[in-house]
Amino acid sequence: MVTTLGKIGVISDSFGLGVKADLQKAKEVGADGVQIWATQGEMEPDQLDATARAELKQYLAELGLEVSALCADYGGHGFRNEADNVWKIEKSKKVMTLALELGSPIVTTHIGIVPEDENDPIYKVMQSACNELAAFASSLGGYFAIETGPEPASRLKSFLDSLESKGVAVNYDPANMVMVTGDDPVQGVYTLRDYIVHTHVKDGTRTREVNPHDVYGDLSHEQIAAMNDGSIGFSEVPLGEGQVDFPAYFAALQDIGYTGYLTIEREVGDQPEQDIRQAVAFIKQYKSTL
């Protein structure tokens, strides 16, 4: 079988060295591209004028790196709070514009937990916000990609099906599904096949039932990372050491014809570079067998 699996990416912020040094390290560990946080600091769109954007694009080109996606995740409750959505949507649109300037059509985000009841007022608030984001992204040929994990794949698909365009899509993270909802990440690929535009390669374990609201209710990445020690029933672990069936996951991605990035995410641990190098080797070894 000829592999159709895409290139290898890393979330460059995982190295914690600053933007340029993070990019250098991403190249050193063997990545083809990078996903970069763009919500604050050096990468916040309002801090990057035209000259800085051109210089960053040139630096990426010199390293031979692509941008797989930017991340515009503003925490809180995602897009469940109508009052906050005004500024979050405005900032998200600025990140989309920056992503396209850097050569990527994808901005990843968390939108908050999609309610089970479609008649829940919060469901309508989230629909409204996502319809605005989708229309903006579609007008530019881009996608806002929702990360999987807060709700089962079937509920997320129903929500996406209810939107007015496909400018809001999916950033598929199998470990979040294993760790939090207990959803099957392999079957989820088939459920969400029409929406997957970016993926994460991350592993984890789940030891007991987890309430998604305990994890994703406030969408604080610092708090979520702190929970990864297993104290509330799940742990993120180095690639290949958890409960994600990667051969089946990769095979499912290949089966649906996914050719986008496989982006390594390592949110915890005190040896991120070593864990990321291990993950790059893991993916390359798998691809070499196809």
In short:
This protein is of the alpha/beta class and 290 residues long. It has 11 helices and 10 strands. Strands 1-2-3-4-5-6-7-10 form an 8-stranded parallel barrel, surrounded by 4 helices. It has a two-stranded antiparallel sheet with strand order 8-9.
Topology order in helix (H) and strand (E) letters? EHEHEHEHEHEHHEEHHEHEH
Number of strands: 10
β-sheet strand percentage: 15-25%
Rounded to the nearest angstrom, the radius of gyration is: 18 Å
User: Structural class of the helix and strand makeup?
Assistant: alpha/beta
What is the residue-averaged pLDDT?
Answer: 93
N-to-C CA distance: 6 Å
GO molecular function, one term: isomerase activity
Pfam family, one: AP_endonuc_2
Keywords: Isomerase
Organism: Paenibacillus nicotianae
